[in-house]
Design a protein that fits this description.
Structural class: alpha+beta
Shape: globular
Strand order of the largest sheet: 2-1-5-4-3-8-9
């Protein structure tokens, strides 16, 4: 059965070329994946700025940023929020990495991070909390879908071999 015949997102796997994107950040400036080449990039998708789970996850990335950078990784967060909302979130939580506005969720769709969700017995389309690690050359090194907000950064660090298992 064709993946296109269903609403199920086509997910990325290790070895795939990461879809390029150019999005507006919290400061209103454009940032592209191509401009981040040369370093490994953790691209994480979260549903909504300033919600409890998304705040916890963003703060976990913020608190791990120095050690991630020392290991050669940079972090970029994407959500369907507008840049103004991202700016407030960045300021309030003192986030020190770019948050990008994917308002039409086209990038989330290209990365397999948009699709059918179930919550409290209701089925709907939305952002699937996901993380994709892209290597220095734009190739997917690791893709994780339906991740939990709490504890995800610690698990990701273990999966990347940065912390003991």
């Amino acid at each position: 059965m064709s993946q296109n015949a269903t609403t199920e997102a086509v997910r990325l796997s290790a070895g795939d070329t990461a879809p390029d994107f150019t999005l507006t950040d919290a400061r209103g400036q454009e940032l592209s994946l191509a401009s981040l080449r040369g370093k490994k990039t953790i691209v994480y998708f979260y549903p909504a700025a300033s919600t409890p789970g998304c705040t916890k996850q963003a703060c976990d990335f913020r608190d791990s940023l120095e050690s991630l950078a020392a290991a050669g990784y940079q972090v970029v967060g994407l959500s369907p929020d507008a840049p103004a909302k991202l700016a407030k979130f960045t300021a309030k939580e003192e986030l020190t990495f770019p948050l990008l506005a994917d308002e039409d969720h086209a990038v989330a769709e290209a990365y397999g991070a948009w699709g059918e969700k179930k919550n409290y017995g209701r089925t709907y389309e939305g952002l699937i909390r996901s993380t994709v690690v892209v290597d220095e050359n734009g190739i997917v090194e690791m893709a994780q879908y339906n991740v939990r907000a709490t504890g995800h950064v610690a698990k990701l660090r273990r999966d990347l071999g940065l912390d003991p298992k």
